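Most newcomers find our protein records easier to grasp once they have seen one. Nothing more is needed to start thinking about how sequence determines fold. Here is such a record, shown just as it appears in the course material:
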Amino acid sequence: MTENSKPGGYEGLKAVFFNGTLKPSPQLSNTDGLIRISRDIMEKQGVTTSLIRTVDHDIATGVYPDMREHGWKTDEWPELYPAVREADIVVVAGPIWLGDNSSQTKKLIERLYAHSGELTSKGQWAFYPKVGGCLITGNEDGIKHCAMNVLYSLQHIGFTIPPQADAGWIGAVGPGPSYLDEGSGGPESDFTNRNTTFMTWNLLHMAKLLRDAGGIPAYGNLPEEWKAGTRFDFDNPEYR
């Protein structure tokens, strides 16, 4: 196989896409249009994908796995989280509002954070075996700002972020057509299509690398071992 030939072996991987649009189904979501590009590429490689539009679900606000245990009467997040737990790839997608991520995207990040203290069977933080990416849409500036927030948050709670793990589309500044509107130029944007494709393949490559390697090595990152006194070559400084 040459360096630029198409690899294989992605079958069996699972990916979940979260759409942080503020529009409930069946309203048209421009973010869905960008998600579809990435999902199509993954599915052609035998990857199982799913899509969750968070606004369609009664997800409570908070930073605990089940907010019904913390004062909320209802919370669908415990029923949605298994899709994350079973996924190798998690893509957070959403629109720009006031130059920032939508409230739905922010709520999702908070609910993911709720599980960051859980451990895998290897004793690592829950998201260590998973790869994260980001897709952003809008008709105002802010793609890089929004992606920076999402990708930092994902890596901070344990996701692995491959190179160029974000893509997006924005129209002209101010009121104007959105991504899927006729004449927007969004679906024809070579820059957006290239970045979305590169992001998708980098997610696939990294997820396969982690799966084939059995995940990230556990030495040096086991919280319970640290708590028990193991210091993984860290030398306590002398205090004078």
